[in-house]
Fold:
Amino acid sequence: MHALRTCRRRLSSPHGSGLFPVKHLINRETLDKGVPSHGRPWKNGKEAILPNPSGPATAISARFRLKAATAAAHERLDGWMSRYDLACRADYGAFLQAQAGAFMGVEDALDEADAEIHLPDWHERRRTMALRSDLNLMGLAFPEPAQVTPFRGEAEVLGAIYVLEGSRLGGAVLIRSVPDGLPKSFLSSGNPAAWRALASVLDERLSSPDRFDSAASAACSVFAVFENAARAYPGADRK
Structure:
């Protein structure tokens, strides 16, 4: 059983330790060669047929191209998220408040953009209520929703949802650091099947360069929303 410990300033590496883990990024050299960073073709890739000087063209699926296109924004955010010590109640509370403001703002913007038209199970994917429940149980105020630039069109909607759904992968790791006795609804809301379904939708609908660029731009803007939220709720002794 984990025990709550005294809050301290956390200075761990930003790589892969936050809610949005940065792992196995496709680097620029890899993209130029048309092969993934682990050296094997993506088995399910449908888009981005790129030339490979050493062999036949390789397909890289949309979600991996989005990961590469948003890598810088992703890593900046992860640097902020990695500062939270989730074994510390104050830090965990600040983490949830940062997530709540960002999620509510982005989810509201997606509702305004009629996200359910493009992804029918969108409302089942929303996580604001899980955050509200956790914060209520901790006796913490729910923050105001973050300001979010409106999403226009299917590609931008999908780019934004890609970021929100990707955060579930990090949550499955972070929940191990949260002590027993603290609410964990938000970090418990993972669904691997939903992620695979989204990946298929991205491959199908981000097939043109213009649509992909729109999705990547929207995804970067969502990472920035979360970064600003983390700055607003820095955690214990870091104001």
Observations:
- The chain is about 55% helix and 5% strand.
- The mean pLDDT is 81.
